[in-house]
Structures are given as C-alpha cells and as structure tokens.
Design brief:
Elements lengths: L1 E5 L3 H13 L4 E6 L4 H10 L2 H4 L4 E6 L10 E4 L15 H18 L4 E4 L4 H12 L6 E3 L2 H16 L6 E2 L2 E3 L6 E3 L5 E2 L2 E2 L6 H12 L1 H9 L5 H15 L4 E10 L5 E12 L2 E5 L6 H20 L4
Parallel strand pairs: 1-2, 1-4, 2-3, 4-5, 5-6
Antiparallel strand pairs: 7-10, 8-9, 10-11, 12-13, 13-14
Helix pairs in contact: 1-9, 4-5, 5-10, 6-7, 6-9
Bound molecules: nicotinamide-adenine-dinucleotide.
Amino acid sequence: MKITVVGAGAVGATVADNIARKELCEELVLLDIKEGVAEGKALDMTQTAALLGFDTKIIGSTNDYGKTAGSSVVVITSGLPRKPGMTREELIGVNANIVKGVAQNILQHSPDAIIIIVSNPMDTMTYLALQATGLPKNRIIGMGGILDSARFKCYLSMTLNCSPNDLNAVVIGGHGDTTMIPLIRYATWNSVPVTEFLSEEQQQKIVSDTMVGGATLTKLIGTSAWYAPGAAVMALVESIVRDEKRLYSCSVSVEGEYGQNDICLGVPVVIGKNGWEKIVDYKLNEQEQATFNKSADAVRNMNNVLQTL
Ligand SMILES: NC(=O)c1ccc[n+]([C@@H]2O[C@H](COP(=O)([O-])OP(=O)(O)OC[C@H]3O[C@@H](n4cnc5c(N)ncnc54)[C@H](O)[C@@H]3O)[C@@H](O)[C@H]2O)c1
C-alpha cells in the first residue's frame, strides 16, 4: 500500500504525520513544489519513527511525480490557505490551476488512485478534479464535512460538558462559513437528541460557532488550521485503506441525491476500499432542504467562476 500527500505545508505534513504514525501504508510519499521542503519534512518525520514506534517508509519529493507512481490513495493539499478575514472562496483563482495540474500529474502515475481533495474552496476544487481527471465519481472525495462535524462535536461537548466520543453529529452542505449545515436536529448524545438538553439559544450558538469554526482559528493563528484538518483526512484515509465503511460527510458528485445534480457537495457517504460507496439519505425536513438548496446555489455560483479562469 502506497499513499501520496501533495503539498507539504501545514495540512499536508500533518496528514502525513498522522498516516505514518497509524501505519496506514508501507510507503508514504510527500510531494511539494518548493525545493527541499518535502524531503526535509519526510526526513524529520522519519526520525520520529524510533521514538513513536512506527515502520512507515516516508519519502520526500520536490515535484517528481515518478516517486508517487502506483499510489492507492492521493491527498491533494497543495494551494494557498486563507489569511484572517478571507473566505475560502477567495482562493479560487490561484488554487484552481494548482489543483488541476496536480490532479492530472497524479493520474499519469497512479491511474487507479482514489483522490482526496483538501485545497479550498474545497467543493469547487473537488468538482474541478472530477472534470479534469474524468475519473469515476466514487474515486474523488472532498474532505470538509468530517472536519466540520468534528468541530460541531467539539462545540457540543464543550456546552454539554461531555465526551465528544459520545456524540453523533453531522455537518452537510458546502464547506464554507455560510454554506455548511450543522444538522442539530439529528445530533445525539448517546442516542438521545441533544436538543433535549440545550436551549434554543445554546443550539443556535453551537451551530454558528461551528459554521465559523475555521475562520475563528484563522483569526487566532494568522493562517488556516492544520491539526484537526490533518486528523480528519487521516480518518478518511483509514476508512478507505481498512475498508471500514465509516459513514462520513464528504463532498461528492451528486446525481439527484438530496435534490441536486452536477455539483460536488457535502452529504453523508459510506467510505470504503472503493472510495465513496454509497450516499445515505438523511430525510431532511422542508427547512433543512431549503437551506441545502441555498448552499448548493452558492457552491454552483463558485463552480461557474471556473469558466472565467
Ligand atoms: N478542506 C478543508 O477542510 C481544509 C482545511 C484546512 C486547510 N484547507 C486548505 O488546504 C490548503 C493547504 O493549506 P495549508 O495550511 O497546508 O497551506 P500551506 O501554505 O501551509 O501549504 C501549502 C503547500 O502547497 C504547496 N504547493 C503550492 N503549489 C503546489 C504545486 N503546484 N504542487 C505541489 N505543491 C504545491 C506549497 O509549496 C505549500 O508547501 C489550502 O487551500 C487551505 O485553504 C482545507
């Protein structure tokens, strides 16, 4: 099993670190366009092996896609992150070219790979990767909803004063400050709806804190976050390589599901060795469906920008 992570920046390096520690593959390739950075970080991580007790072989590469050949899973994190005050959508001009080029290079050397898109604006980059590679839809997965759901659970656990591991909570829709939809009605604390324990005001605050979860961190750190994004990608990769069939919210190409077509958007999907294997239909109520449709409209507008680049 070989896995490649493209982009050895904050998120890419954290993804690689998590994958190596968990020994999700025998060989891990970290690739970046900046001379020496991927090699340096790969060597630094390799030197943790004797301390952390893993045997994953980590290889760094400066833009040499030959080294990525035969990867089963490829994670694309290359591209600009946002600065405080920026939206994810503002990154489209630069990141579209990067993601398109990277996806095509990857395909040449790893024609059977499952590709995970992390670069923002993620839903549009996932849509672009699908178009640019022509791969079967099940092999292109956008990572956003897993992270947003983890943030949702974090804010729920802080308010309920409970373990996030006892919570079930999912965020669907676009991966944007205004487009994501934390489904509070479906969130449970060990099977009991959280709405039974929270006031209307508390629920609204948790939902809005979740939606700006990334922006809050960007404001504090000065760039976008990497620990939770890195862990979220690792969880997704783990479900693929171990064929776990975990149910995660991911951005995938919908064809009529949730009332949408010709778009990649966050919906609950079963993740296994074939990529995303099945979309699970949460019966949205009228208001949730209307919010989902609005989210899809915003993502579609962003996808239309691709035509102008
Ligand atoms: N989907 C999510 O939930 C999520 C979460 C966090 C960050 N992000 C996004 O992930 C991306 C990376 O964030 P980061 O904080 O790691 O940024 P970063 O600047 O730390 O790292 C990006 C890396 O990409 C590299 N790169 C640029 N062009 C490249 C190319 N053509 N080929 C190979 N490498 C190239 C850069 O040299 C840099 O090392 C950003 O677009 C960010 O917005 C997404």
